[in-house]
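Hypothesis: this fold can be encoded by more than one sequence.
Test: take the structure tokens below, design a sequence, compare later.
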């Protein structure tokens, strides 16, 4: 009976509706932040549990056991098993792609290899789900009636692409954050390794000492050093432990450290001198990255300066003068000036 007046629109989108949605998202974000601040958990508990699980796996002989024994010892997830069966039934589960996803998960700090099956399954299911949601939003419900057919198609295609690339984008974001955190602490870790080597500690004891000392300041790096220490203690080949370290970290600097450690183990070269050279190179590289960011800052600040700061400055400086000129040239202002 009564029609609701349409609100203001921008490019065919209801501004009031979008503002309401953004306000709701902001309120949910504030509630989530308060919940996270109230329920603070020990950050070390999860790391210690993961390391203990890895130690128990190595003790049980998972690395060197036969495939039949490994299948009995590894704890499998029923959900991922069902996903694996479905993917194998559709002939879309390739070993090469599975290994790539497993390495990405390891670089992101997720060491459960069964999660790779879930990622590949999500790549197949999420585009269908997001595509159906996009069809409902853009075609069936007609939430954007002012949009033409081309805009609706692009919106639908964007949702399908988001469903396909969403898992990869999320994992890549985790990898980038974790890699940056490890890169920041690597020079300090090498300095501490040099001190431990000069003090006469073995490689296992040096890695363990670095993990304990840097575990609070650089938790990701401490986690990797602790896991390498465990693998050095239990694996039959120490080279495999160092290669696993490079496998889990997507950094060329870590590859250099691993190569140095393997050469030291094989040829007996001095460890302290080699690590000292690597530490100096990493510190110089970190300083060069900082100088590069500082040199790039003026170019980055140019666009915000032109778009946001200069218009405001012009309004503040030229606004009063423009108002005075407008009043002077107005008909009432001219008559007032003539009467004076």
């Amino acid at each position: 009976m009564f029609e609701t007046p349409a609100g203001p629109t921008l490019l065919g989108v209801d501004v009031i509706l979008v503002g309401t949605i953004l306000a709701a998202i902001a309120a949910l974000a504030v509630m989530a932040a308060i919940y996270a601040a109230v329920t603070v958990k020990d950050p070390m508990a999860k790391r210690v549990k993961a390391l203990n699980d890895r130690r128990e796996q190595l003790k049980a002989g998972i690395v060197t056991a036969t495939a039949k024994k490994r299948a009995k010892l590894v704890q499998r997830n029923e959900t991922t098993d069902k996903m694996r069966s479905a993917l194998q039934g559709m002939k879309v589960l390739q070993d090469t792609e599975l290994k790539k996803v497993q390495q990405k998960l390891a670089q992101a700090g997720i060491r459960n290899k069964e999660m790779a099956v879930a990622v590949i399954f999500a790549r197949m299911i999420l585009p269908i789900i997001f595509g159906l949601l996009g069809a409902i939003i853009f075609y069936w419900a007609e939430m954007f009636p002012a949009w033409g057919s081309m805009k609706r198609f692009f919106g639908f295609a964007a949702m399908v692409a988001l469903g396909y690339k969403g898992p990869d984008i999320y994992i890549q974001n985790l990898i980038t954050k974790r890699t940056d955190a490890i890169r920041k602490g690597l020079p300090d870790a090498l300095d501490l390794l040099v001190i431990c080597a000069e003090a006469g500690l073995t490689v296992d004891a040096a890695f363990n000492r670095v993990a304990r000392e840097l575990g609070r300041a650089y938790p990701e790096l401490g986690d990797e050093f602790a896991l390498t220490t465990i693998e050095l203690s239990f694996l039959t080949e120490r080279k495999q432990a160092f290669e696993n370290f490079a496998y889990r970290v997507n950094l060329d600097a870590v590859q250099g450290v691993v190569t140095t450690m393997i050469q030291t183990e094989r040829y007996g070269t001095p460890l302290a001198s080699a690590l000292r050279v690597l530490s100096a190179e990493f510190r110089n590289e970190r300083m060069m990255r900082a100088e590069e960011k500082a040199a790039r800052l003026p170019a980055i600040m140019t666009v915000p300066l032109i778009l946001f700061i200069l218009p405001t400055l012009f309004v503040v400086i030229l606004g009063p003068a423009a108002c005075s000129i407008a009043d002077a040239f107005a008909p009432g202002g001219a008559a007032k000036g003539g009467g004076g």
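The first helix runs from residue 15 to 38. The radius of gyration is 30 Å.
Hypothesis status: open.
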